Amino acid sequence: MALTKLDQLYRAVILDHSQSPRRRGVLDETTTQIELRNPTCGDVIQVQLNVQDGIVKDVRFDGSGCTISMASASMMTEAIIGKPVEEALKLSEEFSQVVQGNDVEHEQELGDAMMLSGVSKFPARIKCATLSWKALEKALANQGTGVDGQLKHEDMTE
């Protein structure tokens, strides 16, 4: 089965994000952070956020996992930086729809993360692709709950 030029481009972008991840590392100033594990495959993602006045001022991730989970985390950080929290959460919802094979309203705002739409053909990989996005949602849910800035560890349950 020959890959189309578009499939080749998608693969190249995914490999680039996995091999040269954007915003990987540790934040100096963190308002909330979480580590989320996918117990089925062993992927682990730590997402750190600095949210000021309802805006994602900075975001970093670290962790280990497959190409899909690492690329997705890199893409997620680029998509949400500088966005209001509500918009970041909306993008997370839309990304979840994309990897399930559904059309979304704000494809352009997802940026490179749209390249992971092909994951919908491999249901076992959807959790890999959504791990960092679920971590983002959980970290933002922790804002204002008294655990802000503290690392919270959870297993992915969805």
UniProtKB/TrEMBL annotation:
<dbReference type="InterPro" id="IPR002871">
    <property type="entry name" value="NIF_FeS_clus_asmbl_NifU_N"/>
</dbReference>
<feature type="domain" description="NIF system FeS cluster assembly NifU N-terminal">
    <location>
        <begin position="10"/>
        <end position="128"/>
    </location>
</feature>
<protein>
    <submittedName>
        <fullName>Fe-S cluster assembly sulfur transfer protein SufU</fullName>
    </submittedName>
</protein>
<dbReference type="Pfam" id="PF01592">
    <property type="entry name" value="NifU_N"/>
</dbReference>
